[in-house]
């Protein structure tokens, strides 16, 4: 029936309009988010540079930017949400592992263990993170605005080759430096006997965390290498499916 | 191109139909011809790789009433490394796997059927996996219970705990896994013969790992018995035993739904056994009772690792229960609407 078809077409149009407004909102949010994060990490970079230029030393640098980095790194948790609800097409697990490892380092290592805050390894991973995040978020921003300069794309898919391993070295050295302090103070640990009949030794937990870099880091690194080949050279890589 | 000629067995089609070549898209429901023609029209089957579309196997003179299972056996002959259990045969490279019982002539294919093959990987039988994953916790827990050397401080080697709840817990834990082993051998009727080989490593790590973690604390020399003492332990034991009997009743009821050697699926209903009356409210009461058993054990031991194990198990069983509930709803129009997947009215 003609009128029935028309109604159907009108419904479809309404649906399409709803979808368009939804995706417009999503795009607006993602653009805002990525601009905000780029700005945040730029602020961090400038604060770190200014501190070093003024004071001439890295001692006390972490304390000066502690609140800012805690805020911006923790806020990155929403990216896991983005993947989970599907507005960003990345694996939830990959994003989850990356964000969690950052949050772990910020909150459970550098924030909690004051004695290691002036270690050089901390500065190493802070610099690496800052460079990586500025590149990454500006890449996403430009992509969403459909104006991606080649050098941003180049930076995103090439700098990581050096920055990832350097970052891992910084993180591992920091955790390693924290071990004696953790052992001595027994922080975050619980011993028997207690009414929950459980024990937890943060020292051994950290050792396990360090060991977990061995299987996890290569997987993330090769994932990025595969992305790089696909994006920069248009190679089609057949993923092994389960 | 492999050519496997099948011997004509001289079998006649039951309805004596004569088959004409059909376009692949129409379903092959043919009206039986009234002629008493006894000729059998054979099918040709070609099997392509689902990913590369390479021709892997060509079978001619395949009986129309051959099942997918028989075709898998034939394919196995030409490709001995792909035993039938690891073959996934489908009509469409990205489609669902065909069942072993599906009959060739009832599939939407022409007289030259094209199937796509996917390798499911090395397979291992369900029975083997169950026996291995359940024997581990049984043995491991006992190692901790008897305090074999290198677990606790040397002065505690081969000593026994002074708390009687520790002995009770060992009996309950061991009873639970012995029950599971016996059920695997004598009660369960499995729909699938096999599962991927890597599952045995995943499953054993889970069961054995958690068993070791729980057993370490329950049998520790510095173990603290439950706060509310006798009352708590007694209540916990009652809950545990009640749920163990319930779980067993459900397993037996489910077994009786299915004749030996068959893979039929029927709606389970309450029987004379009061423990099965929970079927009125729940689709998968075996999981409900399992949760109850572990809650009882958690209460009995008052041990956080046990609570954690109960929680993780509950999450997994809820996922399974929801899936089973959904497939019941899909398969049976008259499925009782009052039932929830695992927790009455709640989940």
Question: Key terms for this structure?
Answer:
heterodimer, A: 242 residues, 0% strand, globular, B: 347 residues, alpha/beta, 7 strands, disordered N terminus, phosphoprotein (chain B), fatty acid biosynthesis (chain B), membrane (chain B), SRD5A/TECR (chain B), transmembrane helix (chain B)
List the helices and strands and how they pair.
The complex is a heterodimer of chains A (242) and B (347).
Chain A: H1 2-55, H2 61-75, H3 78-85, H4 92-110, H5 120-144, H6 150-158, H7 160-185, H8 202-233
Helix pairs in contact in A: 1-2, 1-5, 2-4, 3-4, 5-6, 5-7, 6-8, 7-8
Chain B: E1 3-5, E2 43-49, E3 55-62, H1 68-78, E4 87-90, E5 112-119, E6 123-125, H2 126-145, H3 164-186, E7 194-196, H4 198-218, H5 229-256, H6 285-301, H7 304-331
Helix pairs in contact in B: 2-3, 2-4, 3-5, 4-7, 5-6, 6-7
Largest sheet of chain A: none
Mean pLDDT of chain A: 89
Shape of chain A: globular
Helicity range of the residues of chain A? over 70%
What is the residue-averaged pLDDT of chain B? Answer: 86
* SS elements, strand count of chain B: 7
| CA-atom Rg of chain A in angstroms | 22 Å
N-to-C SSE string of chain B, H for helix and E for strand: EEEHEEEHHEHHHH
Report the portion of residues of chain B in β strands. Answer: 5-15%
Note the beta-strand portion of chain A.
under 5%
Overall strand count of chain A: 0
Largest sheet of chain B: 5 strands, mixed
Q: Report the end-to-end length of chain B measured between terminal Cα atoms.
A: 53 Å
Strand order of the largest sheet of chain B: 1-3-2-5-4
- Report the total helices of chain B: 7
The helix-and-strand class of chain B reads alpha/beta
Number of domains of chain A: 1
């Amino acid at each position: 029936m003609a009128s029935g078809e028309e109604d159907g077409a009108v419904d479809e149009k309404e649906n399409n309009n709803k979808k368009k407004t939804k995706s417009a909102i999503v795009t607006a949010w993602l653009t805002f988010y990525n601009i905000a994060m780029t700005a945040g990490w730029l602020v961090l970079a400038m604060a770190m540079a200014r501190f070093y230029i003024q004071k001439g030393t890295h001692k006390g640098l972490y304390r000066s930017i502690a609140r800012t980095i805690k805020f911006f790194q923790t806020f990155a948790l929403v990216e896991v949400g983005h993947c989970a609800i599907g507005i960003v097409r990345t694996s939830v697990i990959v994003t989850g592992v990356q964000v969690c490892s950052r949050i772990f380092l910020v909150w459970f290592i550098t924030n909690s263990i004051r004695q290691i805050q002036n270690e050089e390894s901390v500065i190493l991973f802070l610099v690496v993170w800052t460079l990586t995040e500025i590149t990454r978020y500006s890449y996403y921003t430009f992509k969403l605005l459909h104006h991606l300069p080649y050098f941003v794309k180049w930076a995103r898919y090439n700098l990581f080759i050096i920055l990832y391993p350097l970052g891992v070295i910084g993180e591992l050295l920091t955790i390693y430096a924290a071990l004696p302090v953790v052992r001595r103070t027994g922080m975050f640990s619980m011993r028997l006997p207690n009414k929950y009949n459980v024990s937890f030794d943060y020292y051994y937990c950290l050792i396990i965390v360090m060991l977990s870099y061995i299987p996890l880091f290569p997987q993330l690194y090769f994932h990025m290498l595969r992305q790089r080949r696909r994006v920069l050279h248009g190679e089609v890589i057949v993923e092994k499916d389960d | 191109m492999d050519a496997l000629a099948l011997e004509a067995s001289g079998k006649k089609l039951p309805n004596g139909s004569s088959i004409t070549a059909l376009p692949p898209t129409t379903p092959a429901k043919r009206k039986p011809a009234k002629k008493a023609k006894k000729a059998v029209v054979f099918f040709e089957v070609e099997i392509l790789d689902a990913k590369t579309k390479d021709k892997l196997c060509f079978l001619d003179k395949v009986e129309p009433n051959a099942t997918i299972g028989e075709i898998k056996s034939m394919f196995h002959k030409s490709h001995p490394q792909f035993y039938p259990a690891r073959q996934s045969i489908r009509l469409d490279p990205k489609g669902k796997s065909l069942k072993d019982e599906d009959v060739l002539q009832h599939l939407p294919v022409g007289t030259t059927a094209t199937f796509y093959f996917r390798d499911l990987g090395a397979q291992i039988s369900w029975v083997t996996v169950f026996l291995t994953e359940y024997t581990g916790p049984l043995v491991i827990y006992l190692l901790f219970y008897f305090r074999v050397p290198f677990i606790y401080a040397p002065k505690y080697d081969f000593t026994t705990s002074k708390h009687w709840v520790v002995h009770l817990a060992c009996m309950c834990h061991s009873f639970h896994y012995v029950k599971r082993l016996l059920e695997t051998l004598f009660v369960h009727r499995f729909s699938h013969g096999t599962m991927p080989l890597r599952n045995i490593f995943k499953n054993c790590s889970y069961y054995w790992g958690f068993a070791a973690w729980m057993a370490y604390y329950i049998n520790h020399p510095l173990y603290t018995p439950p706060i509310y003492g006798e009352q708590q332990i007694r209540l916990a034991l009652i809950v545990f035993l009640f749920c163990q009997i319930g779980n067993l009743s459900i397993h037996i009821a489910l077994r009786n739904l299915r004749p030996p050697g068959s893979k039929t699926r029927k709606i389970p209903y309450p029987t004379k056994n009061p423990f099965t009356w929970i079927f009125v409210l729940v689709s998968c009461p075996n999981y409900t009772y399992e949760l109850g058993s572990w809650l009882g054990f958690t209460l009995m031991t008052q041990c956080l690792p046990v609570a954690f194990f109960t929680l993780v198990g509950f999450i997994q069983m809820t996922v399974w229960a929801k899936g089973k509930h959904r497939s019941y709803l899909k398969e049976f129009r008259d499925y009782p609407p009052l039932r929830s997947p695992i927790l009455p009215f709640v989940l």
